[in-house]
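Problem statement: downstream parser choked on a complex file, so we are re-checking the raw output for the zinc ion run. The parser issue turned out to be on our end (a line-ending mismatch), but while we're here, posting the original submission so the record is complete.
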Amino acid sequence: MSAQPAPAGRGEPMWRHWIVGGVASTVANLINGRSIETAYRLAARASSPATLHSIQTWKLRRTLLHAARHSPFYRRLFQRHGVDPANVSHPAELGELFTTPQDLIDHPAEDFLCRPPQVLYETSGTSRRRKTIYYSHQEVESATSLMAVGLYHAGIRPSDRVISTPDYHYWSGGPWFARAVTKLGAFGAFPGKIPPAEVYRRLAEHRYDVLIGDVSWILRLTELAREQGAPRPLRLIVGASEGLPRRSREFIEEVWGARMFMCYGCTEGAGGMECRFRSGYHLNEFSFIFEIVDQDADGNGDVVFTTLDRTTMPLIRYRVGDVARLLPDPCDCGIVTRRLSPLLGRSDEIVMLGGEGVDPTLFEAILSEVPQVSGTWQVAIRRDGHQDVCELRLELDSGDVAVVAQQVKDVMRAKFETTWKDYQLGLFDLRFTAVPRGALLQERKLRRLVDERERE
Ligand SMILES: [Zn+2]
């Protein structure tokens, strides 16, 4: 169960939340669509913890009643847990009721959908366990407006020239950053995840001063700039999708002469952004209630969120799979939303590689097509310098490791284009190690995919 400090204002009568929350949300909706700067001032200056709490309580009640009425999945879940949505004022009161990523895979979309959807995204990466999240156009507009507020808070202004390189695929990264930068009013180019050299060549000509990209992609561009010289200094860099060790952040900042900020986000829509003090991600608590459940002694646990603004496919107490903690003290920047610590890891088997999530099923599928590899293998993600290394530790029945390496690459190129593209872009390196028979079975349970990268 969660044991986090309650926001101020808990215990206020419901009618007060309805008035304060309803009025504040209506004002925010009116402003968000018009001026990001005004929306930012409202979020940063005009809101207090008590107002935020009223907004959350009012929106939560609305969401729960809506889900109970329109979603067969939630209607059944509420019944099973004996929940009356009209009596819930915080998700923590729902006890052991959670929505898991597996629920999204096991149930048809119709079980979750509360009205006809207009847009879909899939969780990024190469996995057989693909999850689809549905939105309305208006929900995407609201989400990207708040994303723009986060980018504004990090320091991006309408006078900036932005190059944004998160990928365009079935996932939301590329299009959402493009929309958010557009809403900010900044000059922008949104080429997607193209080879870093293509952007490098144009940096000076197009006079970009802000760069947005996946961390591994930014690191490749930075290696290029270190080798060949930075064509122009940047002012600000925003990194997404992966963890960033301190020494890699220092390397990027030194080469570009810019400050780098990290953001946190997922296809399921929840997210946060570092502010200028760069101590944790300010969470979007206007649209989500975050909890940390199953906490250890340090307060680290599973990140769980409940959507507050979504009527197409609301998610209630969704266990996103990240492990982190909430930072207890208010931030010096003064914004009211709480901060999430850098991620400690995942509670499932997904590992970020080249900006996308991979899980053991990817390597199972690849290695099952290479007959010389025995059933005993492990894939480790390590770091070499500033580059990620995907090391395949293989017990071979026969054959030479170089031949097997070529076969693995052939299968990856033919069947897993996303992963192959990331490899081709140099976002990670592939290495192959033949291990002696039995060596991997020393552990009690062989973990197929292990993340051995340092986090600090
Ligand atoms: Zn802050």
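For whoever reads this later: The first strand starts at residue 119 and ends at 122.
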